[in-house]
Amino acid sequence: MFVDTFNPFDNVLLSSIVAAVPIVLFLLCLTIFKMKGIYASITTVVVTVIIAIVFFKLPANIASGAVVEGFFQGIIPIGYIVVMAVLLYKITNETGQFDTIQDSISSISQDQRIQLLLIGFAFNGFLEGAAGFGVPIAICALLLTQLGFAPLQAAMLCLIANASAGAFGAIGLPVTVIDTLGLPDNVSGMAVSSMSALTLVFMNMLIPFLLIWIIDGFKGIKETLPAILVVSITFTVLQAIITVFIGPELADIIPPLGAMMALALFSKKFQPKHIFRINKDEKPQKINKHHPKEIVYAWSPFVILTVVVMIWSAPYFKSLFAPGGALEALVFNISLPGTYSEIANKAITLPLNIIGQTGTAILLVIIITILMSKKVQFKDGGRLFIVAFKELWLPIITICFILVISKLMTYAGLSNAVGEGIAKTGSIFPLLSPILGWIGVFLTGSVTNNNTLFAPIQSAVASNIGASGALLVSANTVGGVAAKLISPQSIAIATASVQQVGKESELLKMTLRYSVALLIFVCIWTFLLNIFI
Questions:
Q1: Beta-strand (E) ranges in 108-213?
Q2: CB 196 within 8 A of CB 476
Q3: pTM above the 0.85 mark?
Q4: Which one of 73, 97, 328, 441 is at 20 to 30 Å from 458 when CA atoms are compared?
Q5: Cβ(481)–Cβ(163) below 8 Å
Q6: Where do the TM regions start and end (predicted)?
Q7: Run of H or E residues at 16
Q8: CA-CA distances (angstroms) from residue 491 to 30, 391, 393, 421?
Q9: Given a cut of 70, is residue 130 above it in pLDDT?
Q10: CA distance 386 to 367
Q11: By C-alpha distance, which of 253, 264, 234 is closest to 127?
Q12: Taking phi first (over 0 means left), then psi (-120 to 50 degrees means alpha), and beta for anything else, what does residue 15 get?
């Protein structure tokens, strides 16, 4: 925070209401006014700048620095990841590997409900655990569209499915970051991991049912009930055991892998009586048979992607770039001139670490894929990169503006004001605690950033009202997961990956009710847990 106070009106309620204006405005622009994402984000940036400078007294030079930082982070890491993920897809499509992947999935089942459970739920969750930061949405939405799902429908389903894995994305980082915050009452990442299982066990069981209900109603649930139960129970039980007894790091690695393997094996014995296709007139296609070596080769980019991203996300790899690490010289911390603040005792700094970026990990996989291919050369990769960039530059700019809003709200104290406003509710706070996490992820697009921002507030309020700090911080985490369905960053990434730029408002309306429904459940359940724990 780069201002003297986040309560400029000497009234916490009034300050929090004014601070919430950008959030409300952005939602209204996308839903009621039906603006495209780029116009909604620019409008909100203008209003946020005015509120930050005029009411919260954020210095103009700091506001300018926030704009620069927002664009920097929008391009690196987020834009970098999205472009590389889409480029990987285009290259595998060019090599013919994607056709083989489709055939291998169809060989498990041509029923698109089963395919949705395999790709939209399980593989999505695995990529969230291995990479996070938009990679699962970009990859899995593309996979579903190639399997016959409508683009926006595929994006919506992947966003909803991601709620099962969002709490532990990128090797458990959203929860492990808690250990760096020094929270009161010794609230640790392990304690929050264990506590979150009490809520996630219900969400994880529900979401596969919800996915099937969305595309085929109760009839679909009845016809695929055994398959749904295999996926739900396998994922839920494994994640509960891991989060309670081991920790958050593998909570999105082993459970989705187990769910995928369990469903693939189960599907050899069970198939729905009626093969469901989204397009009713579309008949199940004849499955092309492939040699096991062809299937392994087709999936190899995603297998390699998983391994490489896990290496890139591992603590020992990240430590190489930390102060004193072997690769410290490759990291450049660029301080923006004129942004030093005596209040914050720091300047706005842009960390440039190209090698350590997840996008670089995907780029490495792209290079390996081209080297392994006899059909695609590096010049083809360059051509496909230009195609991908032309498709994605606008959504990346949109993401940049969204991050500008987040930075302005953080530096001007607007986020703190909103948090303090909710925290003033006292004994009723556990009911509203998840809303704080929901707002945090809506603003930042990241459960990790949300916990960094609001976990200290949750823990402090817990101490004041005699609640469990681990419970409220886990509520902050799970409430944040519900917001990933409608986070502007997630929406922008999803529409970009399925080539539906400009339809952000339509996708938001498709996911909003599910996000709110999940949030209401988490609020009520957290309130009940607080009473009985």
A1: none
A2: no
A3: no
A4: 73
A5: yes
A6: 12-33, 39-58, 70-89, 116-144, 156-178, 190-215, 227-247, 253-270, 295-314, 352-372, 392-414, 426-447, 512-532
A7: helix 12-19
A8: 11, 15, 15, 27
A9: no
A10: 16
A11: 253
A12: alpha
Task: Supply the Cα-derived Rg of the chain in whole angstroms.
Answer: 23
Beta bridge partners of 349: 335
What pLDDT was estimated at residue 478? 92
| Per-position b or e across 80-106, b if 16+ CB within 10 A of its CB | bbbbbbbbbbbbbbbbebbebbbbbbb
Whether the CB-CB separation of 514 and 469 falls below 8 Å is answered with no
pLDDT number for residue 292: 87
Question: How many other β-carbons are positioned within 10 Å of the β-carbon of residue 390?
Answer: 9
What single-letter DSSP state applies at residue 116? I
Mention every residue, 6+ apart, whose C-beta is less than 8 A from residue 348: 62, 65, 66, 68, 69, 335, 336, 339, 411
Give the chain's end-to-end CA distance (angstroms, integer): 34
> In this structure, what DSSP letter does residue 325 have?
S
Task: Look at strands 332-335 and 349-352 and give their pairing.
Answer: antiparallel
Question: How many Å apart are CA 267 and CA 104, to the nearest integer?
Answer: 13
Distance between CA atoms of residues 344 and 407, nearest Å: 14
